[in-house]
Fold:
Amino acid sequence: MKVILFDEDDSWQHLLPLTYTRPISELRAGILTIREKWLKALGPDEMSWKTQPYLQKKFKLKPADFWINASVCPNDELIAKIPTLKKGQSLVSNGRLVAFRAMEPVRELPDDVLTNQEEIDSDPVFIDRTWKLFRNVAEEIKKDFIVLTQGRESAPVEDPHTVVYGEENLFLEPGARVQAAIIDATNGPVYLGANSYISPGSVIRGAFALGEESVVNMGAKLRGDTSVGPGCKVGGEISNSVFQGNCNKSHDGYLGNSIIGEWCNLGADTNSSNLKNNYANVKVWSYAKKGFADTGLQFCGLTMGDHSKCGINTMFNTGTVVGVSANIFGSGFPRNFIPSFSWGGATGMITHQLKKALDTARLVMVRRNIELSEEDIEIFEHIFDQSAEFRVWEGKR
Structure:
């Protein structure tokens, strides 16, 4: 079985700035990324991506007969039906393509993809807006927890000073350690990845996932419905948020209803508002609309693209969207939309020059023994050019 996870152009646009640097299927939705979910669910011989042309050099496309919408998270019906699709048959949800089996392995979806279609009975989760990552994270953690732990035994919590409620919903991968913490897994599972560490004084409520090699710092208050990817350090107060991986929110400060990209760093005492004072719906910047769009949500915090940073005591207003490789600092609230490659804060912005951004990315990544590749550099260059229209201070380039 060969599978392509294909990005709908509209969904990819709506998921910016997170998808500037990755296909949709590489987004973390629960414990696992969407791609990892499908790998576990179907066990294909080969899986590749159909995404934006500038991303294809890194995320390669290979011919396949089974095509799956990259925004869709697996459920029981899809896991059962996709492998049994006949050639030329598609699955749809309310007229929207979910999966298709081509007549032979191909690199493009054929024009007649909806000729022989079957409407599915279930209502699958589509991750086609940024805020759907935190809105659905609790349920996705629960589903991933079952997939990852079924038929396996958890490593023990060896520390006698750690208190666990709902021990049956706690799972430690080999090498995971907990010291003098309180873990409440009664309302949702708590999953600790391999070689992760929870420091003394931490209070954690499920649903919660901590990725491989990630650390929860001393005294953290993790209020549940949160997924922390691999290689992260988190602390302070966090609620209903998703960290893609290899990023730091090490210190005190509040983060809620938020999505943080990879290689990000939030300075000490960074705080993000997730509720407007008038309790109205939160509007966020939409790259697809090129303006602000109503989320329909009362609670919505910070969305931050890969490689962005903020200094100590940074204050983000409700629903702020930060692009890729921005550097935010200074007093006051910066604007609610901060374009990629911005440098500054509430008093004004200048351009974070590409060479300096690449130099910083190299230094940050080498600390995790990861090299900034030629493909990564080309992606940076494309984003820098593509996002120039939003850096209004530059004028016409």
Q: What stands out?
A: The radius of gyration is 21 Å. The first strand starts at residue 2 and ends at 6. The chain has seven helices and 35 strands.
